[in-house]
Write a structure and sequence with these properties.
The chain is α/β, with parallel strands linked by helices. It contains 16 helices and 18 strands. Strands 7, 8, 9, 12, 13, 14, 15, 16, 17 and 18 form a ten-stranded mixed β-sheet that branches. Helix 6 links the parallel strand 4 and strand 5. The protein binds 6-O-phosphono-beta-D-glucopyranose. One of its GO terms (biological process) is glucose metabolic process.
């Protein structure tokens, strides 16, 4: 069920007069919890505070976070530092509790030390001993694997104890930072041990990608998760949506009059969405080999960017309105074929990354020397809507490319008439609006301008907005924003099950085509991808931007 679908409001029996199933009962309990919460919030409303004023800091209410897969890379590099940063900014409640769950034989003190190490290297906010001391009081570890009934029972006992001693109030978010193969076990255990639902408080599950490897497997996973947690309690992470610049797409389009009226096929020739990384895949074979660039980031981050650029204006920014606009545009999107001509894929070989000589994918530790996994993917998409019909959206991503950059470029059509002499506009290209997602976050407009002098000659110039120059505030790390949102039940920045399934529906035909056609083309590390990617755009009379 999606957040946008009607629920079985006000009834404990199932829809269509059938007897209530456990899922119906869970939904009813969930609705009651949500009503109780709304009433509680209303009772505590500060009459001097404007509820619509989004500038007020949003502070999570009493709650705790359990992280499964806490010894993994993501937890160490992103989640634990984000928790500290939230505490440091004063956005977590006083009795906030963090429970790590894993197989290591760690005591509370051992885990505290691990968290401290992760935080010290990576937190964005300055070190404050006092903040750490308070946070550390609420840090706990439970040892066990995902099939261990006893360990989950101990986890349940611990959460109940913390509800009493630290005032977490039965409000728990479970962060599944584990491969999807483990989702069934963890969900089953959360249900069996009574952790998934409770008489008091809320229970939510936060899920990391990859969410399946095609549409069918995503549907299966959704069924497994939704059998235990109603969709309103499921928060699927796409960390790109937590990035400041990605949220700025909505501000740029819908807070201004200058841009959005031009976002359509009358003015836009095509759109290029690029996510380039200079890093290689050493150390990530376990996750990446057999997955590849399209599944790793195109299915989620890049298609989400496409949805935000192409969607219609939501009625409001509440989660269901925003998600339904994204879903609408994803439903209208499909991969454009024939794929032999409209897509390209590559795999990096040894080369120079700046001044460093680096290995090719097939020589990286852990990768199959015969690996066919693509580290570069480019594809063409079309949107069947009045606004976008006929405008190709070219998406590309790759590892070991020239440099790290994520950007969305809207390339305009040529002016319908140029009242200049031959040669006067020869040095002018198409106008371009570039949203620089990272690094060097900002927005750039490229347009023609007269070259000073007595002759009329037009050449391209840049008008550049840079976040770091315009604002003094530093953007929070995406995971900080998303963890806080999950604790606050603010679902706008989390894709729903339907969005995930739609994205796979869009991508699957390309993946099937690639699976049946040989191996990816080679490209040397440090370059901008395989020649076939340039040829793909050249066939349409276009070229990739060199960011
Ligand atoms: C992850 C991918 O989702 O995003 C990684 O799995 C990728 O392969 C990462 O490196 C990039 O994130 P960011 O925020 O550095 O652009």
């Amino acid at each position: 069920m999606s957040r946008t679908e009607p629920t079985t409001q006000g009834r404990t029996d199932g829809p269509d007069d059938r007897p209530a199933t456990p899922a119906d009962e869970r939904r009813t309990a969930d609705r009651r919890t949500s009503e109780r919460r709304t009433a509680a919030r209303a009772a505590w409303t500060n009459p001097l505070r404007d509820p619509d004023d989004r500038r007020m800091p949003r502070i999570a209410g009493p709650s705790g976070l359990v992280i499964f897969g806490v010894t993994g890379d993501l937890a160490r590099k992103k989640l634990l530092p984000a928790v500290y940063d939230l505490a440091n900014r004063g956005l977590l409640p006083a009795g906030f509790s963090l429970i790590g769950y894993g197989r290591r034989d760690w005591s509370k003190a051992d885990f505290e030390e691990q968290v401290l190490e992760a935080v010290k290297g990576r937190a964005r906010t300055p070190w404050r001993q006092q903040v750490w001391d308070r946070l550390a009081e609420g840090i706990f570890f439970v040892r066990g694997d995902f099939k261990d009934d006893d360990a989950f029972d101990r986890l349940a006992d611990l959460t109940r104890e913390l509800d009493e001693t630290r005032g977490t109030g039965g409000n728990w978010a479970y962060y599944l930072s584990v491969p999807p193969d483990y989702f069934p076990d963890v969900c089953h255990q959360l249900e069996r041990s009574g952790l998934a639902a409770g008489a008091d408080g809320w229970r939510r599950v936060v899920i990391e990608k990859p969410f399946g490897h095609d549409e069918a497997s995503a549907r299966e996973l959704n069924e497994i998760v939704n059998a235990v947690f109603p969709e309103s309690a499921v928060f699927r992470i796409d960390h790109y949506l937590g990035k400041e610049t990605v949220q700025n797409i909505m501000a740029l389009r819908f807070a201004n009059q200058l841009f959005d009226p031009l976002f359509n096929s009358h003015y836009i020739d095509h759109v290029q969405i690029t996510m380039a990384e200079d890093i290689g895949l050493g150390g990530r074979a376990g996750y990446y080999d057999g997955i590849g660039a399209a599944r790793d980031v195109m299915q989620n981050h890049l298609l989400q960017l496409l949805a935000l650029i192409a969607m219609e204006e939501p009625v409001t920014f509440n989660p269901s309105e925003l998600q339904s606009e994204k879903l609408k545009v994803l439903r209208a999107t499909s991969a454009v074929g024939p794929f032999a001509r409209t897509t390209a894929r590559g795999q990096y070989t040894a080369g120079w990354q700046g001044s460093e000589q680096v290995r090719g994918l097939r020589e990286e530790d852990g990768f199959d020397p015969e690996s066919r996994t693509e580290t570069y993917a480019a594809a063409t998409f079309g949107i069947n809507s009045r606004r976008w019909a006929g405008v190709p959206f070219y998406l590309r991503t790759g590892k070991r490319l020239g440099r790290r950059v994520t950007e969305i470029a809207l390339v305009f059509k040529e002016a319908p008439h140029l009242p200049f002499g031959p040669g006067q506009t020869a040095a002018q290209g198409n106008n371009v609006l570039v949203i620089r997602v990272q690094p060097d976050e900002g927005v750039l407009m490229r347009f023609g301008s007269k070259v000073p002098g007595s002759a009329m000659e037009v050449r391209d110039v840049n008008m550049d907005f840079s976040y770091s120059e315009a604002f003094t505030e530093e953007s929070p790390e995406a995971y900080e924003r998303l963890i806080l949102d999950a604790l606050l039940d603010e679902a706008s920045l989390f894709p729903t099950n339907e969005e995930v399934e739609e994205s796979w529906r869009i991508l699957d035909p390309i993946l099937d085509h690639w699976a049946s056609t040989g191996r990816p083309d080679d490209y040397p590390a440090g370059t901008w991808g395989p020649d076939s990617a340039d040829a793909m755009l050249a066939r349409d009379g276009r070229a990739w931007r060199r960011p």
